[in-house]
Design brief:
Elements (H helix, E strand, L loop, with lengths): L3 E6 L4 H5 L13 H13 L7 E4 L3 H14 L5 E3 L16 H9 L8 H17 L5 E5 L1 H12 L17 E5 L6
Parallel strand pairs: 1-4, 2-3, 2-4
Antiparallel strand pairs: 1-5
Helix pairs in contact: 2-3, 5-6
Length: 181
């Protein structure tokens, strides 16, 4: 039996439009466009029955989750999982994205290491795989989904920066039954 998970990137946040890093230490809120993106994402998911709803604890993910649930008429408890929070970007909170990714490309690390983030997400995926569900919805962050791909594809943690960025409100479907954790 398949265990299809829908990993969704939150809608546009204030940090996104400013072009700065938010990470797990900046509770950047959704913009009006971000709220609309969440509604658009819900429209793209119409007709799918979601039996488990999981979110990062950040306001941008929780607000995206609530909008999607409202649009789809889902009345379930939201399970908050710290494992799916965005990476702690340390001293780069509020700093330009380009500066942060240049720092990483040069081998620098601050805040949460890529290896620690990958381990955290591996634990989150194990937890998810143990749950009884058919189609869970996991609302999370761009960096988180990119790092999840390193786990799924057996890549080194540092390679997450080479994985393409998701647009706000974009999602990836993953069959956890096909994954060895």
């Amino acid at each position: 039996m398949s265990k299809i998970v829908y990993f969704i990137r939150h809608g546009e946040s204030e940090a996104n439009i400013k072009g700065v890093m938010a990470g797990s230490n900046d509770n950047s809120s959704l913009t009006e466009l971000g709220k609309q993106q969440a509604k658009d994402t819900a429209r793209n998911l119409k007709g799918i029955y979601f039996d488990l709803i999981v979110s990062s604890p950040m306001s941008r993910t929780l607000d995206t989750t609530k909008i999607i649930m409202n649009e789809l008429g889902i009345e379930k408890e939201i399970i908050i999982k710290l494992e799916f929070i965005e990476r702690d970007v340390g001293k780069f909170v509020g700093k330009p994205r380009e500066a942060y990714f240049t720092f990483l490309a040069e081998g620098g690390e601050t805040g949460e290491s890529a290896t620690d983030m990958q381990s955290r997400l591996r634990a989150g995926l194990r937890w998810l795989k143990e749950q009884d569900f058919e189609n869970p919805l996991v609302i999370t962050h761009n960096g988180t989904i990119r790092m999840i791909r390193t786990v799924l594809e057996g890549l080194p943690a540092k390679d997450f920066t080479n994985i393409p960025t998701l647009r706000n409100g974009e999602y990836r479907k993953v069959d956890l039954e096909l994954v060895t954790l």
